[in-house]
User: What shape does this take?
Amino acid sequence: MLFMILAHDKANSLDIRMNNRPAHLEYLKGAGTRIKLAGPILSPGDDPKPVGSMIVIDAASAGAVRLFAENDPYASAGLFEKVEIKPWKAVTGDWVPAEG
Assistant: This one.
């Protein structure tokens, strides 16, 4: 089942994000094909900055996703103010497998 992780950064935490970015990317890479889509949420305006993360992951349960999110180096570094985990369904897009 697919789940969406929405993680909202604490205010004024860009340094925490950037200092832990390499470890975060390696952590995501380690999840292999379970990660379907991932990237930063950006602030509005002419000079957008990362203010959170959005990850779509294939997992057996919300509990497994919560554990994955808690072990993310960003979470370990205290970057996030709030993390939401929601079931998600892919309906259309080039990467979405055709339903038979």
About this structure: The beta strands are 2-9, 35-42, 50-58, 80-87.
